[in-house]
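anyone else get weird line breaks when pasting these?? whatever heres mine. first is seq + tokens for prot A
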Amino acid sequence: MKIYRTELLTDIDRKLFEIDVDQLGLDNVEFTSKTLSGLLTVDNMSNGFHIKGNLEVPYKLVCDRCLTDFSDLKTINFDFILTDDDQLNYDDSDDVIHFPIGEEEFDLNPLFQELIQLELQMKIICKTDCKGLCSNCGTNLNTHECDCNKEQASSAWDVLKKL
């Protein structure tokens, strides 16, 4: 999604927008919808533009414990500054992005790509009390009780249990 300098100069207030997920090029992330929606607000500053808003992302995920497909709607907030002032860019902050005066447009897609990927958790769980799969038969313990013998088979480490 590109935003033009002429738009930025008009002080956008809570503008609704949609992005086609194919434009983002995130092949490793699945979505339940073909479009993402959000709100965008732009405030003019003396040395640039303050851009803030949110993006609603309907993820399609697979639980790491029970391997069940599920969907999760996350609202990702963003808040950054576009500026041509080199002094504000001194620390290479992610919240301050260099936007030279000669540039007429700014592409938000790389920023959205990063935010979407950062929102994904390392361990994806469908619900906090997910019981997972039975380690013997593979039954989903959230939906069925298994008839497996709960005692573990003997192993070489059983001798340590006697200590």
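and prot B, same format (seq, then tokens)
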Amino acid sequence: MAARAALPLVVLVLIVLCSATAMAEATVKKYYQGLPEFAADPPFKPFDEAASRALTAALHAASDTRTPCPMTKAAQDFPDVKGNICRAADASRLREVLAGVAPSLDPAKLALWKVDLDGDARPELVVAYSFASAGEPGDPYLAIWLVKPKAVRYEPLYAGTYLAGQVHAVTRFGPSKAKVLFVRSQNCTECHPWVFLHAITFPAEGAPVAFFEFTYAKDHAAFGPTIEYALPGRGHSMDAKVETRVPAPEQPATPHLIQLFRLDDGKTEWWLFRCAGLRCDYELHMDRLPGQYLRAWLRGERL
């Protein structure tokens, strides 16, 4: 698979080939249109001191699990959305607090993650809200916020809305070795979708969320906030199986991300990404992974 132009984060218009009849008919489906404007019109009211105290108590008392559990179902035939606060009583207490500060969000559609992204021993809460778009059939979307302590109150930071989204992992990543939220999404709900990962970091107090950007372009010029996680093939992309790992930071030269593309023709490609700040450029090796990186690959965390 030769280096290629990076794909955009959001594919607004998808041409779908429908084969209901012998002759394929082209139709147009528009994604991300008519969705709630969470960035411009946040569903959260400001946290007062009482709500902040209640959230602190509920969050500290909640048990988080290493293995995520299904917590919500947006609509019939939609995928369950997972969280890591799996004990019903813990989730119920947190949803009760959130209902007071975000009354427009259906508590039954909230999946919750207890995390400590900045390592300060004060847990944050990732709120993943699952909803269906208008129309028949509607498409599944996931909106994400990080609710983090700010002085004596909490501040919700909007981290985007994702088609068929799922919180995929929370793990250390990048030059700073801080924990990063990996979100999985796809570019369509028909035919054979591209599946992407988005690496989201939540910076210092008062700053918005930020995305790591990656390039797969031959000229290393075009960067975008997506990692290619699964390829549909079938003429839409290369026919290949993709495996993605985050190596342990054993030495300064260790890549921050390694991807193995196993092409259907028997060839393999190794994409080694190193990040400077939030921009991640690649080093490409055909067929064999150089020996100095083998240990990093074998001991890496599989995403």
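btw re prot B: The helical segments are 49-61, 88-101, 294-298. The CA atoms of residues 44 and 102 lie 4 Å apart.
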